[in-house]
Amino acid sequence: MSTWQTLLDPFQYQFFQKGLLAAVLAGALCGLIGVYVTLRGMSYIGHGLAHAIFGGFAAAPLIGINVVLGAGVWGLASALAINAVTRRRRIGADAAIGVVTTASFALGVALLSRFGNKGPSFDAALFGSINGVTRGDLILLVVALVFAVVVFTALYRAFLFTTFDPEVADVSGVPVARMDALLMLVLSLSILATLTIIGVTLVAATIVIPAVVARMLTDSFSRMLWLSSSIGAVCGGIGMYLSFQIEVPSGTTIVLTNTLVFLVVLALTGGRTLRRTARMDDHAEPRVAVAA
Amino acid sequence: MVNTTDALVRLDGVTFGYDGAPVLRDVSYAVEAGAFTGIVGPSGSGKTSLLRVLLGTVKPHHGSVSRRPGVAVSYVPQLETVNWNFPVTVAECVLMSRASKRLLPWATPQEKADVAAVLNRLGIADLGHRHIRELSGGQQQRMFIARALIRRPQLLLMDEPTSGVDVATRHEVLHLLGDLNRDGLAIVLTTHDLNGMAAHLPHLVALQQRIIASGTPQEVIVPAVLEQTFGARMDVLMHLGMPVVVDGNHVGALGVAG
Fold first, then answer.
1. pLDDT tens digit string along B40-49?
2. B16 touching A, CB under 8 A?
């Protein structure tokens, strides 16, 4: 077999074509949502939410409901709980997120260990898989991506304002609490849609890295959205291709491709653009918690 | 409950706090049209909380807040709380204030004209395409004032506008605010910088959870009020008719009694 034939070989398989399309869509989706997640300092929330959704992923088949529906409801409930804790700050948000999401993940592992896997692949949910990308997975990805694009375009200024300066946005008539809840909805839907492509343990990296690289390359918010989505999509495609060729889970190759891009940009820019990512998540103090 | 009033905003007997600890006690205060007032007090005296009650972002535990119907209030935060690495230009930042009126990303020709006009009014017309990190302290303050003004407010509330800036920038900002006030904009700002305020603001309020004194700088910047407000002896010199606060330890060296 010639080199070209070897290189093009994966494209003759329908499962690879589906997997590649899914990885590109998942990368673009994670890159888009990643801009808001990183600039708002929600990286840990994204990581935790992915683990929380895993609990619903494991529990849904056991009680006889659709995996997507079960994990979606579970994830949304977790997202809204995290959002409420983060806003009220009764206890440390990081501690609350750590308890809620890790407990949910542990519950998922316990259910799978005790009752066995009755839904999609356990390994795929953890690390992502090129195999078994269904038509339903692709439809869910398209729905999540279109939903995210519509929300972030239609409410562009409101999301920009609440991300940059939530206190003044609130004073200026932007419904900040509703915007935060909507962002958590988009985030949980995005994680749910990418679950079996990238895996819960690796999805946080595919959300964060493209956005950080994009921030290193531009000082414009709108360009950052385009760049982050594009970097995520390209890394998703390359990562999926490598997954087939070197036979390792797709989540790992997608994350490693993202990491390589980060290192290349860092090397090419001499590290001077890294300064832009400093205090990426620094906000004005939440208005309910600050005394004069 | 918010009632109506002839004043732009009126507080009657307002008590407010966080987690059960009051930071404002029985505060009654009215912001009249055309006011130019500095709220002075040390850290923890309730200055920012008072602004938040005036803004309506927090509700008092006791007392009432009344607003003139239709009054528009804008707010300028402390520069120290801003993430200056955030990826926005000056023009994009100013346009944020229109987020509740138009949600789509791109600006209309009218909006572009409005942004250009307000930047020109504040003397930063050529900085619209600059990243916010590239501005000086005075320019940063002007940008946020521009963002506040594009909403065409009757009342501008500013949290520590002279904090963390040098003396020249402080004078620049206060002169600009004086010009805006002469054009009819009511302004209330907080500060712990007593000497910077006396020469520029016609009205001061000394706050230490309660209103200790309210009046002209000559009426408020006096040793008895300052001691009650700041909890330490402070002496006052008169310089060109304006009160100047000096550290009590240095008065003897200057040969002037406080």
1. 998 889 999 9
2. no
Counted domains in chain A: 1
| Higher per-residue pLDDT: A60 or B88 | B88
Q: How far apart are CA A88 and CA B155, in angstroms?
A: 29
> Kind of pairing, strands B62-67 and B2-3?
parallel
Residue B101 located in a structural domain:
yes
Mean pLDDT of A118-135: 72
pLDDT at B252: 42
B32 band by pLDDT with thresholds 50, 70 and 90: very high
Q: Average pLDDT, stretch B164-186?
A: 87
Residue contact B75–A278, C-beta within 8 A: no
Interface confidence: ipTM more than 0.95: no
CATH of the domain at A37: 1.10.3470.10
- Angle value at C-alpha A24, between A22 and A30, nearest 5 degrees: 95
- The answer to whether B42 contacts chain A (CB < 8 Å) is no
- Residue B87 has its nearest CB partner, among A154, A168, A220, at A220
Number of domains composing chain B: 2
Smallest Cβ–Cβ distance between A39 and the set B17, B73, B86 belongs to B86
Please tell me if residue A272 touches chain B, with a CB cutoff of 8 Å. Answer: no
3-state secondary structure of B44: coil
3-state secondary structure B55-70: HCCCCCCEEEEEECCC
Fill in the amino acid letter for B152. R
- Averaged pLDDT, B219-243: 84
